[in-house]
Design a protein that fits this description.
Blueprint lengths: L20 E5 L19 H13 L4 E4 L16 H20 L7 E12 L2 E3 L5 H11 L3 E14 L2 E15 L4 H9 L20 E5 L2 H5 L3 H16 L1
Antiparallel strand pairs: 1-2, 1-3, 3-4, 3-5, 5-6, 6-7
Helix pairs in contact: 3-4
Length: 240
């Protein structure tokens, strides 16, 4: 039986790359964050939910989403574990943005980069290249557990230098047993193609998930709780 009939509209709530880089300026602003263009409203809705949660704790700071142009070319095989690989990629994103804002001496900045990957039996999975690649990934995940790993790099501006706080968060996700017809129907929705591991738990892909052990938001692409714990010290430095 197909859970995903052909023609179902693709949900655009992807966040695994949406939080590639954030920048906090220490100067407060009376204006609220500008609304995104109407054609991006749905795409950015989950990202804004994340940011709203963060801003509850850190009022008085400007927050700007700056997409990083960092080329994600690192080979996960060159790293001891998926966490180190994710942190290195997150650091690359953050450093690229930091280079663009460092000349603005009127503000102190905190730049946050994040990157998420999927790990199963020491193999790292990114976004599927095509339908066949997505099918292979989801077939491997069927009826077993895999890890969702997000690396975060926080760069804190201290005059002309930058200090870093980095960490990774791992959540274990257990898929139910999937049949080929079910996998093909899900891929036909288009949802898997822009997501690490070929699925999104916040969308139709959530119906594939039997259970999770760890931070749900980490599976969406950003470990919100642990991030806020680390940010308390960082914000104190920026505003002091």
């Amino acid at each position: 039986m197909k859970r995903f009939p052909e023609g179902i509209q693709k949900e655009k709530t992807r966040t695994k790359k949406a939080l590639g880089s954030l920048t906090f300026g220490s100067e407060s602003s009376s204006s609220s964050r500008p609304s995104p263009p109407l054609d991006k409203e749905r795409e950015d809705s989950t990202t804004r939910d994340f940011l709203d949660r963060i801003l509850i704790s850190f009022q008085g700071l400007n927050l700007t989403i700056i997409p990083s142009t960092f080329e994600e070319k690192y080979d996960p095989k060159e790293y001891d574990n998926p966490g180190d690989f994710a942190i290195a990629t997150a650091r690359g994103k953050a450093e690229e943005v930091a280079k663009r804002v460092r000349d603005d001496i009127s503000n102190k900045f905190v730049v946050i980069g994040a990157d998420t990957c999927i790990s199963l039996e020491n193999q790292v999975f990114g976004k599927p290249k095509d339908h066949e690649d997505a099918f292979k990934m989801l077939s491997l995940f069927s009826d077993c557990s895999h890890n969702v790993v997000t690396g975060v790099s926080v760069l804190i501006q201290e005059g002309e230098t930058w200090n870093e706080i980095s960490f990774c968060e791992t959540t274990t996700v257990k898929f139910g047993k999937l049949v080929d017809e079910e996998i093909d129907a899900y891929i036909a929705t288009g949802e898997p193609m822009d997501k690490a591991g070929g699925y999104g738990i916040q969308g139709l892909g959530g119906t594939l998930v039997e259970s999770i052990d760890g931070d749900y938001y980490n599976v969406m692409g950003f470990p919100l709780h642990r991030f806020c714990c680390h940010m308390a010290a960082a914000i104190e430095k920026v505003t002091s």
